[in-house]
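Each lists sequence, tokenised fold; shown next:
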Amino acid sequence: MDNQEIISTRDLSIGFPPAGSQTSATVVGSDINVNLQGGEIVCLLGPNGSGKSTLIRTLAGLHRPLDGRVQLSGHNIDELANREKAQQISTVLTDRLTIGNLSVYELVAFGRSPYTGWFGSLTEQDEEIVSWAIRSTGIEHFVDRDVLRISDGERQKVMIARALAQDTEGILLDEPTAHLDLPNRVEVMRLLRKLAHQTQKAILLSTHELDLALKAADTLWLINRKGQVITGTPEDLVLDGTFEAVFERDSFDFDRSTGSFTLHHPQKEPVHLTGDTVGVFWTRRALEREGHRVTESNGTELQVKVQQDSNTFSWQFIKGNTTTRCESMKALLDELNDR
């Protein structure tokens, strides 16, 4: 059974209208035809300046399209009043929170404003929805604290809770993991994926976290430097080369076999690497960082064998008829660099 289409675009062009002495609009992206469906998490990826934030804001009705149209559940967004938009789509933007003297609970409760108005009192049903949003994001233990006295990771979860309290079919987030450390970035992505699947809401987020997006997203929207948006399942976009092409740079490569980016270095001698799976994974990273090409076929002058004994790793470095045992990765790299 197909999920409900929450947001769709037809021949959409995004950008900025003429300003000042300009005679023509600044087009960031064009011919954009995408669909956001309920129950899926979609990650919007692209190089810096490719138009991710502009697309998010256009889909939310905060920027007018230059051409084409945006539809919310089949209705043209331009024909909807602001309150109607707010009852269908909630947004979490990158703007820093500056409001003080406001508790976490009060901020989450603001999510009900499209139904109550800014100064409307909450009904019993409103309070039930606010409590559900708080429980769903796991912020119960600090709901009474001032919003300016919580960490960045906690604040981002509060903003997601506010969007949930708005009780919309779609949630749009612009770089929700920005300014967060790695554990909080992972936690936010895991939370958004869980919410999309459990609540059947459509969740779209822009991010620079390419590795997390590949693991968490049901669908990727890739926006390239020409402003074109290509959509698909993450693995399909990796295997057909689209993902790699969008992020192609002179300074790094995307390795399809590992799903990670590798830095370019002047090529050193190739190394044949074998041994324990975990040890081989991390040894490959180290060798490639040092500029060696790691091969799966024997026949190279340099060979490395990784051995594991309990939680201890060791390496045999073989060059010709000489074998050297190394007890650490650093010792192995030093041995390679001395050759």
